[in-house]
Amino acid sequence: MTTVAASGAISIRNVSKIYDPGGANVLAVDNCTVDIAPGEFCVIVGPSGCGKTTLLNAIAGFHDITSGQIELDGKPICMPDFTAEPGADRIVVFQNGALFPWSTVLNNVTYGPVVQETSSSSEAKEKAQTLLAELGLSGIGDRYPNELSSGMRRRVEIARALINDPKVLLLDEPFRAMDALTKGVAQEFLLQAYDRVRKTVFFITHDLEEAIFLADRVLVMTTRPGRIKQTLHVDFGRPRNYKIRSSSQYLALKSQIFEAVREEAIRAFEAGERELA
Amino acid sequence: MATIETSSPDRTARIAGTSAWALMLFRLRLWLSQSSPYLGFVGVASLLLAWYLLTEFFNVPRFNKLPGPVAVWREFTSRSPTFGISIYTPDYYMHIFWSIWRVLQAFFWATILGVPLGLFMGWKRTFRDYTFPVLEIVRPIPVLAWVPVAILIFAGIASREAPVIFLAFLATFFATVLNTMLGVESIDDVYFRAARCLGSKPRHIFFRIVLPGALPFIFTGLQIGVGVGWFSLVAAEMISGEYGLGFLIWDSYVLSQFPVIIIAMLTLGVVGYGFSAIIRIIGATLMRWADRSAI
Predict the structure, then answer these.
(1) Cα–Cα distance, A199 to A5 (Å, whole number)
(2) Do A86 and A60 form a contact (C-beta atoms < 8 A)?
(3) pLDDT per residue over A188-228, tens digit each?
(4) CA A209, chain centre distance (Å)
(5) Strands A82-83 and A90-93: what pairing?
(6) A37 touches chain B (CB under 8 A)
(7) With A28 labelled, which of A3, A20, A99, B255 sits at a CA distance of 20 to 30 A?
């Protein structure tokens, strides 16, 4: 059954980030404040270049912020002039995939436990096999990522994150490049995994349907500078299946979010904004 | 009974259960069913024909001092060769052995020193800033310009081998370092980020990301390196040496034993080709992950 996460609270307070490419100050994120509860599935939607990824990278520890503070379970992890090293407590699943192409699936998944020396290699392998099986990926341990379909690769990457038992999963448009059918299946696998181990999830996407299908809460971001424009609570129970996609409640939520995002998309389109970072 | 005919049998399925030997035979047959081996044969034959026509058949001025293919072949396969070098003389193999042995030593040191240096240069910005200008100034100096320095450096050493190996080493070393460095730079930053997320310490980044990620470029570097290594070795052997194919060429020129020059040159071609083929095979085995399309 589901377990309620005891840790993994993210608190984003008054966070701003100014990029300075060639002297031109660009305000990417403007005074964002969000509190994410332990085990909450939080999805951020917004037009390209609205600073979603900037926010995610700050939580992950890839860069600092210009003002404000980000805390994980009450401990500051990102401030101006301070960024905690990236680590296995908050693992990123990247937009274009980052499975190591030179390692087999099994070695990819066991990478975390092996380098952190949290478990022996044989223990890690056993755990990896179980996780892969749960994600519908039995018997591919000896293959290389190049031999897998994009949907399988994504699931392997999620397994590589989950095996570390992280507090937070940071997913940066992980299903972006997939066709609609594969995407639907990948989302269901993600939800199943989420139902088994309630981790805090910070999920970025452009896809409104995906946002509603997955989230407890959807945050709509404005076009640059990125602010939280609107918060929508999604009240579907869990576990969820694809059938909720045709319910009237789902469609109502979708049109509500669509209105909010459309305005921003038009603004972004007119400003000719480009993806930033 | 209904039978289903497929226009082409599923190649992968057929191969799946067969032995390595059968697979090799299959590949050979596949290769022979293409036009490239025959075109290659025609290319080599044309070269030999042109050589024969220029020298022995038409006796074209400017080429008539060169030995023709027939003369070279006779010398090469003679049990008592006029100039002392043929497939039946131990001397021939001594020369090959010495050249290979020198290239191997040069190659060994270039790999041992060049790969780690290149990895660090690609990985650590500061280290690169220190070393890259030095490398870029020293690298374009032709190996032949190093000959006096090489002789001076190793003047105190009794062996005459050291300067020769050093010269072959230099060329291989530069190609290896440069390609290895480029290899590290070619690694997508996302792998470094992912590795940090998963809790890597610097040594894990080095051995599990930097090294395997640069491997394709490293092998390109080694292949280029061994080629320029042979090139420099032959030049060095012409200047100092008692054995070796470069020495043989120069010695035969001085003694006007022209067929031997051609024999040594062709031998160099074949041995050099063999070397890069071996490196290519090792590289392909180590980098099974890079290309899965080939059956």
Answers:
(1) 6
(2) yes
(3) 999 999 998 889 999 999 889 999 999 999 999 988 788 88
(4) 16
(5) unpaired
(6) no
(7) A99
| Residues of chain B predicted below pLDDT 50 | 1-15, 292-295
Whether A86 and B197 lie within 8 Å, measured CB to CB: yes
Give me the number of domains chain A comprises: 1
Model's pTM, two decimal places?
Answer: 0.83
The answer to whether residue A6 is domain-embedded is no
Query: Testing the interface with B: which of A57, A100, A119 to mutate, by most B Cβ within 10 A?
Result: A100
In-domain check, residue A263: no
A144, B191: Cβ pair inside 8 Å? Answer: no
Chain A residue with minimum CA distance to B197: A87
Q: Residue A276: its pLDDT value, please?
A: 44
Give the best residue of A115, A152, A168, A169 to mutate against chain B (max B CB count within 10 A): A115
Helix (H, G, I), strand (E, B) or coil at A140: coil
pLDDT value, residue B290 = 73
Q: Report yes or no: A132 and A159 within 8 Å, Cβ to Cβ.
A: yes
DSSP assignment of A9-30 equals: -EEEEEEEEEE-GGG--EEEEE
User: Which value, to the nearest 10 degrees, does the dihedral of the CA atoms of residues B68, B71, B75, B80 take?
Assistant: -160
Q: DSSP class of residue B180?
A: H
The partner residues of A226 in beta bridges, in order of sequence, read A29
Q: Do A91 and B197 touch (CB under 8 A)?
A: yes
DSSP code at position B155: T
Among A88, A145, A147, whose Cβ lies nearest the Cβ of B197?
A88
Crossing angle between the packed helical segments B245-254 and B211-239, to the nearest 10 degrees: 20
pLDDT tens for each residue of B141-182: 988 898 888 888 887 776 778 888 999 999 999 999 999 999
The string of pLDDT tens digits covering residues A226-264 is 888 889 999 888 888 888 888 898 999 999 888 888 888
- Flag whether A76 is in a domain: no
